[in-house]
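We give its fold:
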Amino acid sequence: MKMRATEFVRSYFDAWNHRDPVAVADHLARDGLYWDVPENRRSSHDELVVALREFFSAYRHRYELIGEIVEGPDTIAFQYRMCPLGCGEGRGGTARPIQGAEFITLHGDAAVTIHDYYQLPAAARTPGAGRPASAAPGTPKYAKSGLTEAQLSAYRQRLEMVMVSRQAWLRSDLTLPELASLVDCSVNHLSQVINAGFGMSFFDYVNRYRVEHAKRMLAETSGDDSAILNVAFAAGFNSNSAFYAAFRKFVGQTPARYRRSRTEH
């Protein structure tokens, strides 16, 4: 997958650096979603185009890859630097680089989901200074979690890297302590990161990955309900009822209906 991941990221960065909203959004699959994680906001292809047109008309940035691309089966993760106009101009320049990380799930050559997490430096916290739909927090967003924003940022990125590279959600018996061990943080801190940083419980966080994995499998299978049950277990669920409940929660329809909508085209 190395060449596939490299080409995808290269094309994706080119689209951002050419300030082409359609080209950026075209990296999404037909029903793909772009998630602005700090704002917990999801955008479809067309919604992302609208948001990026407004963003690109007001701001100019250069996007750069930081470090290596982390790969898993059908997943990509990388860190990036966004340099606003005036970045690095010396003592007179007020703009500062903005760092973030993206976690992408692929189906074929297109992204089913793009999770974008970024952290604005204090000097950049003005309305519209960040990525699309970002806001200017007046106070630390996660003050109630007991962790600083910097600590949450580090733990969140480490957690997502673990999920992407190890596909930990495929283990039906995965527990919070076991995931904390993989992330190399305390159980309490990991719980706070998931609750405050992602706005969901541990089980919802893990099931979100399982559902996305199941969606890719369902799009490639047809047949009776036994095939759906096989998908449920292959995605890491330990019961059919848990699978159906999570799927309806995140997708808004049953697995069977979703499969029909994908295979009828």
